Amino acid sequence: MSREKEITIYDIARELDLSAATVSRGLKDHPAINKHTKKKIADLAHKLGYRSNTFASNLRRQRTNTIGVIVHELNSHFITSVLAGIEKVTTEANYDLIIGHSSETYKKEAANAMNLFHKRVDGLIASLAYDTESLEHFEPFAKKGIPVMFFDRVFEEGEGTKVVINNQKAGYEATAHLVDQGCRKIAHVTANLKRNVYADRLKGYKQALIEHGLEYDESLVIINDLSEEASIEAAKQIMNMKPMPDGVFITNDFCAAVCIQTFKDAGVRVPEDIAVVGFNNDVISKIIQPKLTTINYPGIEMGEIVARNLINHLHGISNINLTNTIIIKSELIIRASSMKKNT
User: Fold this and answer.
1) What is the mean pLDDT of residues 20-34?
2) In this prediction, what percent of the chain has a pLDDT beyond 90?
3) In sequence order, which ranges of the chain are alpha helices (DSSP H)?
4) Using an 8 Å Cβ cutoff, are 66 and 95 in contact?
5) Is residue 160's pLDDT more than 80?
6) In which region does residue 102 sit, left (phi positive, over 0), alpha (psi from -120 to 50) or beta (all else)?
7) Domains of the chain, with CATH numbers?
8) Whole-number CA gyration radius for the chain
């Protein structure tokens, strides 16, 4: 089936015996065109199925009114919250979003960055994949003066504005809470330490142990990809430690929930035998039994802040190159999974 020819302002002009410039102004509700002519133009445009070619006019203005977003995963309550915050701000400012998903790989992240660059996005927001080791794939944006902002998973030494939480402080609070509940041998399950979020949470874990007079033991730190299989394996590893740890700080709620289930299936009681603290305040933390103590950090607000900073930069209201890091507050939410003192 052949595609119908796209209707242009020249078709409307020819039919109404007007100039193309008049039709163009009429469609934009220009005050120089009288109401009667505007109505004739609008009615015919509607009848013929005219669509304004915003892409072409945006290219002429060197603006596409689109913002690219690259996230490392989509099946996370935190990431969907951040996207909701970004979308709220960008919609109000009349920007469209194009979302790329790196599936935790540098290779896909770099391909997404290139794709968004060629789609001529006005700005880019990104959270880095597990194995990203440099920011070279974002250099084309810098060369063209296209602003890039990072959130949550960032390069600390990278330039530009970053929006993060204080992961070290959060890791410290999670571990200190376990010590406060009487735990003396605390394991830590985390992910790739190349990422600031995991490296900083580990720093907080170490700091809390040392400040509370407990020894840091590297053999109690398990690093994996936080998948279901890896989480089951981590729980088994912990149960095989002699003596078994009486507490564990896990850097992800899904992983923590799988560990709790694996402990329970093996007859290990939570929190009586082992207290568990997670991270992210994902929906699963309220569903698993016992409910999971976790760190909450506001994804929607993080998304709003990163988007607002980027749009203010695009509008010349502020300059993200003058800012460094914006830190959002996080908080420990205490639930039954860690409450040894109550048992």
Assistant:
1) 87
2) 75
3) 9-16, 20-27, 35-48, 54-60, 77-92, 106-118, 139-144, 167-180, 196-211, 228-240, 253-265, 284-287, 299-314
4) yes
5) no
6) alpha
7) 9-52 (1.10.260.40), 65-164+299-328 (3.40.50.2300), 167-297+332-342 (3.40.50.2300)
8) 26
Two tokens, residue 94: 């009349």
pLDDT tier, 75 (very low <50, low <70, confident <90, very high otherwise): confident
Q: What is the pLDDT of residues 205-238, one digit of tens each?
A: 999 999 999 999 999 999 999 999 999 999 999 9
Peptide bond before 243: cis, by omega within 30 degrees of 0?
A: yes
Alpha carbon distance 193, 133 (integer Å): 11
Tell me, what's the pLDDT at 1? 46
Q: How far apart are CA 195 and CA 13, in angstroms?
A: 58
Q: How far apart are CA 135 and CA 138, in angstroms?
A: 6
Nearest to 252, CA basis, from 279, 218, 276, 282 = 279
Please check whether residue 223 is in contact with residue 190, taking contact to mean a CB–CB distance below 8 angstroms.
yes
* 138 token code pair: 């974002």
Please give the average per-residue pLDDT across 21-40, as a whole number. 88
Rounded Cα distance, 219 and 206, in Å: 13
